[in-house]
Fold this protein.
Amino acid sequence: MAEWSAERRADGTWRVAGPDGSWRHAHAVTDAEDAVWVHLGDAVVVIPTERSVARRTPIQGHATLEAPMPALVTAVLANVGDVVEAGATLLLLEAMKMELPLKAPTAGRITAVHCAVGQRVTPGKALVDLSPAPGAP
């Protein structure tokens, strides 16, 4: 397995070494649910923790997606009544000059959208409600 290493810099960024020895700078923040959002180059990776996974696990297919950090809503891609697949991008948020897609954790039907383009949201703010679609497992 290839190894990565990282060192924290005084300005709060990270210097990350890839398995090929190349170095890159990264930004990382922890959201209100303790998941870690890492911005490295053109990619944003969300690293869940046990606590964040437990909080986001849907109960019987119902889910409320919340803002993971202070952000600006830049696009609302789902409407009430839409049936979406697991992994479908429902919203785009912008935080710390990063675009953050908010994706459906399960397949289902959008039952509410609690935000609009241009709105600033805070961690824990409900953004989208998702219920199982008829006939969904």
In short: The longest strand covers residues 23-30. Residues 52-59 have pLDDT under 50 and may be disordered. Residues 50-56 form the longest helix (7 residues). Residues 13 and 41 are 13 Å apart (CA to CA).
